[in-house]
Amino acid sequence: MLLGIDTGGTYTDAVLFDEHDGVVVASAKAPTTHHDLAIGVCGAIDAVLATGCVDAGQVELVSMSTTLATNALVEGKGRPVIAVVIGFEADVVERAGLGDALGADPLITLAGGHDPHGSPLAPLDVDRLSSELRAAVAARPDVEAVAVTAQFSVRNPEHEVAAGDIVRRETGLPVTLSHHLSARLNGPKRAVTAVLNARLVSIVDGLVRTTESALSERGIHAPLMVVRGDGSLVSAAFVRERPIETILSGPAASLVGAAHLTGLADAIISDIGGTTTDIAVLHDGVPEVSADGASVGGHRTMVSAVAMRTHGLGGDSRVRHDERAAGARLLLGPTKVIPLCQLAVEESELVHSMLAVQGTALSPGELDGMVLVAEERDRYLTELDGVEREVLERMGGRVAVASTVLATLKLQKVAERLVQRGVVQYAAFTPTDAAHVLGMQATYDAAAARLAASLFARKRDRLGKHLAADAHTIAQLTIDTLVRRSAELVLAAALEHDGLGADAVRSPAVQAALDRSGRAARLAVALGSPLVGLGASAPAYYPLVGEVLDTPVVVPAEAGVANAVGAVVGRVRLTAECVVTAPQPGQFLAHAGEHPVMFTDLDAALMHSRRCLSDALAADMAAAGAPQFEVTERWHAEVVDLAGTDLFVEGRLTLTASGRPQLSSTP
Known about the structure:
With 667 residues, this protein is of the alpha/beta class. It has 21 helices and 29 strands. Among the domains are: 81-201, Rossmann fold; 571-659, no CATH class. The strands form seven sheets. The chain has a six-stranded mixed β-sheet. Strands 11, 12, 13, 16, 23 and 24 form a six-stranded mixed β-sheet that branches. Strand 28 and strand 29 (645-659) form a beta hairpin.
């Protein structure tokens, strides 16, 4: 019996999977509790064990997927870090988006690094690095990790390794070394990946610790695996140092789960959650992997991941109005908020009284219909000071009416910073509220949803007119906007996959086809493969999306827990690679192991490289939870014709290992 868990932005799902029969025995959901993840994880585990009537001792493997890393990057909520870059030109911050990824966090630049053949460019200034690290930590005591990237560290990691040792000695903080994340060239892009990885270390570590504790308390002593962004599995210990590899973990697991649940070999899969919509293509039963690395939150990384298009659109997206528009033009996301109907279950009096009072206003203000929520207010009151502390003090408790607390523009800007840092959350009108108004969903407080919709309908457009006549009208417009936006995103993914470009969906011809507005000319557009809708709200929304796209839609019975299913049916799969270069004719430099080694024979260089990669891969597979595995090898050589003679320039050796995770009962 296998236990699959998916910790999403809104819900934590759990399934019990009978590996022998290949079926889901039971499934359950619990709200994800961001202030204390243990509550949601424990709730989901307890519920699924009870539903399946399964004893904890029967569980032989636990596997988890998560959208926490993805959501943190999409919403800009990663932890503060220090970046150390070694041997780069002065403009490195402007390249590959490193400046955007780093933001206002400290940057330390040093001479050093290596050339393309692994020879040092300059000595590493150890003393300067030590002093600048101490100064950076003193100036920014909130930093939680350090990212180190050196020029051509994939050809010789010596300076990265040395810098990492210094960081640990001087700061005691977790360190990310860029060559551990990718063996590919492009130092600035590798630096971005390292910075993002460092931002996620404490977030993913907290989830792993929480899950391990919850399992132990329940007498589950099975191995814990985590889904990576390419859909493969690794042990929890393995992923602690490489949390960025879990970006798109949840979506990747959903693809694997969708393939298992539907039996489809070719499909376009769209997974809608509370925070994001994730879209990918399934071809020949296998998710397509991005050749350029995963792109999340506007950052292009070097992480191997499914070719997933992630958008800030979900059931809990904040609904806003385009104030520049005449008439109701709604904007959804990318910000996630707590649906007012959900908050009203716990805070009924505050939510209902606020909506009733504000609903009498002739023209509701920007903050009307919004509540501030601080789950750990008491803790942050002791940690914050100045105007940030003032915001929490003005709240007076866990929840407060936003318009009352944030009386000035300064306080509003401070609150936005606190939201970005995860100190507080907003509750506001969302598609989930709209679905409750229309009877599409009945999970929370429908009366609160109607009041919220009525208040939102009274907001005014650019011409001073109300957005809608009543709650039902604005709710229907909200759902229509969500469905149309979902259809456009799915179609854009299909067009991009076919090489036509995602922007083609905005063309007048495609828009006319979606509107079915042609008269003299009737245009039609549809998907070439079935659309698979996943997510708890997929049964409500995706049949409507299929109508817009004139495409058959498949929503599996377990659509709401496909991520958790995918988490337990996957395999451990790791890749190790290195290059062999030729500095001079007859010289072959193997960039494998701790430092480059020179050979005068290509076969000898290949043998050395293969041995280094095999040893590293065996150790990594054991650490990742699959000591028994199969290996495939790929050698790609670049050769040029020089006066009729083939001249070797460079070659890349890639070893890929794959195996099922070891169960607790496996000898």
